[in-house]
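In the design runs reported in the main text, the only information available to the sequence generator was the tokenized backbone. The following block is the verbatim input for one such run; it is reproduced so that readers can re-run the procedure and compare outputs position by position.
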């Protein structure tokens, strides 16, 4: 039977909350795991939670503090072209980006789509209508990543 933490205020550095700690191979039985369970994986050195995020239940690493590379890619519209490349993004990355044409935010999958792949920098952005002549196109990405390196 589990223990509950109720109406407890943590004060100062003398109080902590401890998570179960074990390697990947050890943990609750498959039928005992419930969304939201948390553990520290001593094999990977990461805090993990149990959830069905991708359609397959499993342990998911909690993002940790660190440095994530933010990328900025720029183009200039010419009132004719609707497609610009190369991009360090690929098909399906629309919702992981912030895109502006001039000072106007572009709505993912409505105003643009991303095609191609990240490999070899073959990703493309395709706008639903050509950006005006001289319009600055700014694409910012990288903050959807949970992969980081500690400084």
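Verbatim output:
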């Amino acid at each position: 039977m589990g223990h509950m933490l109720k109406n407890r205020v943590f004060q100062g550095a003398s109080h902590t909350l401890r998570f179960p700690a074990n390697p990947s191979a050890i943990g609750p039985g498959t039928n005992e795991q419930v969304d939201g369970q948390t553990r520290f994986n001593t094999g990977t050195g990461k805090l993990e939670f149990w959830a069905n995020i991708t359609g397959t239940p499993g342990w998911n690493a909690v993002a940790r503090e660190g440095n994530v590379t933010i990328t900025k890619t720029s183009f200039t519209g010419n009132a004719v072209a609707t497609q610009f490349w190369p991009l360090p993004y690929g098909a399906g990355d629309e919702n992981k980006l912030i895109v502006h044409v001039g000072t106007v935010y572009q709505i993912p999958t409505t105003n643009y789509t991303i095609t191609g792949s990240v490999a070899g920098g073959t990703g493309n952005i395709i706008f639903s209508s050509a950006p005006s002549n001289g319009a600055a196109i700014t694409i910012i990405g990288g903050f959807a990543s949970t992969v980081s390196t500690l400084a």
